[in-house]
Structures are given as C-alpha cells and as structure tokens.
Amino acid sequence: MDPRMAAELTKRVQGTPEQHKLNIMIGDFVKAELPYFDVCISNTPYQISSPIVFRLLSHRPLFRVAILMFQREFALRLVARPGDALWCRLSANVQMYAKVDHIMKVGKNNFRPAPQVESSVVRIVPIDPPPPLRFEEFDGLTRILFSRRNKTAHANFLAKGVMELLDRNYKTWCSEKNQIIPDDFAIKEEVGSILESTGFRESRAAKMDIDDLLALLSAFHEKGIHFA
After folding, report:
1. What pTM was estimated for this model as a whole?
2. Nearest to 90 by CA among 61, 124, 119, 66
3. Burial class (CB within 10 angstroms; exposed 0-12, middle 13-18, buried 19+) of 8
4. Feature table: binding site for S-adenosyl-L-methionine
5. DSSP reduced 3-state for 69
6. How far apart are CA 34 and CA 202, in angstroms?
7. How far apart are CA 95 and CA 126, in angstroms?
8. DSSP class of residue 153?
C-alpha cells in the first residue's frame, strides 16, 4: 500500500471500533509474503497489473474471489474468449487457472485528476482445485503459439530458436529419465508429427481454446517434449 494512503486510512479509523480490525501492511505486493485471505479488493497499480494477477493466482491457500480494477484494455484482455480480437497469451494463461468476468466500466471522469485511460472492474475466481500442471509448461507453450497469434501452429514452431529450445529440453528430459535418444531422432520431424496427429498443425492460437491448448501440451509431454 502507498504509505500516504496507509497514513490516511489509519487516521480515519483511529478511535473507532474498526481500529482493532485493521492491519495495514506496507510493502511490495508482488514480493511480500502474503497472509491468508479469502477476498481481495483492489484498485491496482496499472503498471504492474500482470504481476499482480499471477501473484494472486500462485498464492496458497487459494483465495475465494478477487475484485480488481485495471486499465480497461488489460481488463478486456483478461476476459477475452477464443476468436475475440483481444484473445491472447494473457487471456489463456489466466483462464487456465481462474474464471474471469467483467463487472463494470469505470470512466476516467470518476478520478481526480482524470487519468489518460479508461478503467474496468473484473472478478477473478480461482479454479479449485487448480489444474495439476506446472504454470511454466503451459506458459512456455502459449509463448510460442501466441508469438504470432494469427499464424499457424506449425509456422510458429518453425520460428527461430523454438526447435533449439525443444531439442535441448528433450535431451535434458531423456538424461533425467535415463532414456536413450534414438539415433534417428530429429526434433523438427517429431514436432511436425505431433502437430499432424493432434490435428493442430494448421490451427491458429487466435482461435484455440483452453482445451485445445491442454490437448496439444499433453501430446508433447507424452513424447517427452517440454517447454520449461
């Protein structure tokens, strides 16, 4: 919390019954050790909106609900659906772990001084229990697919550096599992085979939903190919 706001809030509750119910913590929300909570309500600092969302979703035990205000464009990306113009890596990564709803618009004229941007309030409800999946793996896949959201999955996997990353990860996985790498193994052919067999070769991230992304990730994992 902003120290100035903390001081003002403390002053307002002094001498009231609420004084003993209020615990003000001043610090960096993204880095601080968070206490247990079941409800989070915040007008978030817009410049760190994404770190705040993922800090909340990684917190354990899971909270019940968060009501947060963001810059409107960010909020609309959070709630976008496959096929929407704003469906993106952020949308997929958040909706993998939470149900997100747009509650209301907040015009800039509601603030003094008025900011340059419009705002929106969203509701975030974590999926409980959360998917048994490392976030880094899902994020690694969406990073590739959404790098060019309107290109085919096959084209994105052929992008510079992607094959090298997957080949390195595969060899690391084989080493950890004491698996022998076949002499004729070629990461490019293996990736192409997976995309073909799953039917996602010509799919575009702009229209792929969470189930599609999970199915593709599972197919890669079955072949020992990982993204983180």
Report:
1. 0.90
2. 124
3. exposed
4. 1, 28, 43
5. strand
6. 43
7. 9
8. H
Q: Express each pLDDT in 19-65 by its tens digit.
A: 888 888 888 889 989 999 999 999 999 999 999 999 999 999 999 99
Q: Would you list which residues are annotated within the binding site?
A: 1, 28, 43
Strand locations in 19-92, DSSP E? 39-43, 65-71
What b/e readout covers 202-228, taking b as 16+ CB neighbours within 10 angstroms? ebbbbebebebbeebbebbeeebbbbe
Give the tens place of pLDDT for each residue, 118-144. 999 999 999 999 999 999 999 999 999
Q: List, edge to edge, every strand of the sheet that includes 98-106.
A: 39-43, 65-71, 119-126, 98-106
Contact criterion met (CB below 8 Å) for 24 and 10: yes
Domains and CATH numbers, the chain: 34-126 (3.40.50.150), 135-222 (1.10.8.480)
Q: Which of 103, 80, 104 is nearest to 92 (CA)?
A: 80
Which residues in 38-55 are b (16+ Cβ under 10 Å) and which e? eebeeebeeeebbebbbb
Beta partners for residue 39, in sequence order: 65
* Nearest-10 Cα torsion for 131, 137, 140, 145: -60
Cβ atoms of residues 217 and 176 within 8 Å: no
Cα-based distances in Å from 167 to 6, 30, 135, 187, 188: 51, 33, 20, 6, 9
